[in-house]
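Loading example: each entry is read as two labelled lines plus one structure line.
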Amino acid sequence: MHALISIVIFVSVLAAQTPPQSTTAPAGNADAGKKLFQEKGCFQCHDTLGQGGDGPRLAPKPIPYAAFMKELRQPRDQMPPYTAKMMPDKEVADIYAYLATIPAPPEVNSIPLLSR
Amino acid sequence: MEKSKKNRVNRRGFLKGAAAGAAALVAKPNLGEARQTQTVRAAALPTARELAAETEPPSTDVEVLTEDHPGADFMVDVLKLLGLEYIAAMPASSFRGLHESIINYGGNKDPELLTCCHEESSVGIADGYARVAGKPMGVMMHPNVGIQHASMNIYNAFAAGTPVFMIVGNTVDAADRRPGAEWEHSAVDPAALVRDFVKWDDAPGSLTHFAESAIRAYKIAMTPPMGPVLLSTDSGLQEAGMGDRQRLRIPKLTLTTPPAGDASAVAEAARLLVAAENPVILGGEAVRSENGLRLLIELAETLQAPVQGGKMPTLHPLGAGANVRTADVILGLQVPDFWGVVNRMTDQQQRRVSSNLKPGTKLISITSRDLFLRSNTQYYQRFTDVDLGIGADPETTLPALIEACKRLITADRKRVFEERGKKLAAAHAQAMQQARQAATYGWNATPISVARLQAEMWEVIKDKDWAGIAGGGGRLWNADKFYRTLGAGGAGAVGSGLPVAVGAALGHKKYGRLAVGIQKDGDFMCAPGALWTAAHHRIPLLLAMHNNRAYHQEVMHIQRMGLRHQRGSFDKSAGIGTRIDDPPINYAMMAKSMGLYGEGPITNPNDLGPALRRAAEAAMKGEPALVDVVTQPR
């Protein structure tokens, strides 16, 4: 339940704080980002496709880059901050690029186990 | 003192004599010859020495230990009166007398012995059984080594408020102890090792004392707040004669009525709840029976108030929409961590504490935990400022609270409640849809997502009379009865999950329910022998292994520390000491090796459904079954 509350808070905070400018992501290497997503341990809380676990869902359609970066550097909830020393901007861009490549899930009504 | 002194002489001398005899046999160079000699002698007339041994009183260094009516037989009479169906134990010499009496005097029925491979499993199995049966299982254990093994799950049962009836053997009389292990496995006060987290214990000095303390212990264990109790039981008392059975009396077992809330306090709680605009009910650990669940639902429907936790049925429209941030009155029913619900603490670079409540929110607590606490282990969580604290058992108090609320509800309030109910029903429908939507993310992922596992399991169990014994399916499973969920509670003890699941499955066995759950791999590895107990005693169950190949919570803690300490090169290091993937553990193979039905490891989500169906069929035929599923971390 705590996790659920955290997700709600996280998403609402992000929505409220998304700046109108600087939302364009720098070019990143999605393949490198996929590797970094594992190596940096992002998947531990967000699962391998960024679908969310203990941490909130990151993909598909990640939040605007500026908001993503802000939450990474100065998270509002339980996630520890990733400083530039721990995750340089280039790596953030790569991870963001990876998250942007993750396709949309199947429609809920197309999955018999979930539509009944 | 009924402990028989008949034939009581020097046991050490007896043992010394036996050892000398054994040494003489070992000294014979030709065993074949020895056997021949013995055979010839067996057919011959007794020697004068043998005749003397048969007819003369025993010498002072020999203790005759034969007993037709050992004290342990009387102890079995007591256990039968308590109505114990089972008694779990890893065998040990300190309770060999009682063990033998349970089998040969008691007929190994009520209680029936459960063979366990670890005392931690014994107590965990008893914990799980009690959560379903609503009454204790017996447990026997060795002092020192056995009780230390058991201690973790004793603590877990204590924190969960589960009744467990435990007996620890002990050889009190030092002169009776065999050299070596029996000294190492005896204690002045065996219960001292766990006294901080048992509700009550005693060390009876006689059979009458045993009977009275057993009845007292059972009553204490079953009175809310319930908890484990322990009797240290002398091996001499078990093995010596009981004396005149007619002089031994077993007191009447009359359970103490659970504490109910004070009438004026209940009336005040009703006044606050009826007047509230946004009341929230925290179900906590209040519900311990089907009737308790019925009462919780009745209270929620009377007030049209949302319920968070507390086994609220998945599809009930008041089972979602609870928001402590907007609440003006919060009713906590046996909530173990009330503070943690109404406050928030971040474990980030700074520790920040903030309230989740708006100013003026009233807190009402009904809990039997206010009536009994131990001080050392900090299971009772942070102190919570409440406006009304009712020290009572919620299930017992709910009927009066419901009636008090009904008396105060005017037509105007009823209209307000109905409007609130409509909004909450809409919120519930939205939450259900969101849960289904959330499950689509990572639906086809490998490793398999937890939501996919939950959905596939639901497809297999939905048309059966299923019962939850471990992790469940959240909003993806229709938990509509008390026994569909095991219920939270405990000390977060890694290693308690598997034996609790096995014990719960045993509790469900006589009802023919399909006992199902999602089992964590790290928890499983603490004492996997509990699975063998399930196979040996033909306890049907279906477990799916949430095999994420790590102690993932700890992975995240190490990661958090690496970030907090600004380690520039911590890549992958969070997995050192926390992952259990090299080599990967094959849980299906482990299950099969212990006589269970096993499938897996399943890595392709499309293979999962068929594997679960096959395992469920095995479980429905009476077998325990395990499907190893390689999963996403969380």
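Confidence is low (pLDDT under 50) at residues 1-22 of chain A.
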